[in-house]
Write a structure and sequence with these properties.
about 55 residues
Amino acid sequence: MERTEQITAQPSPEPDVTPQPNPLVAEPATVTACQQDYADAADVRRTMAQQDARNR
């Protein structure tokens, strides 16, 4: 004889939908911050340029 017992699924917890502060708008855009951001992304721009050159 087979057991036909049903397993009841536990409800998953509700996701946290509390609004979170956006770090992009939380701090002012200063020349120094923009220069630092541009310098930090040099490797990303280089990689994108290499990929673009390969696709042409």
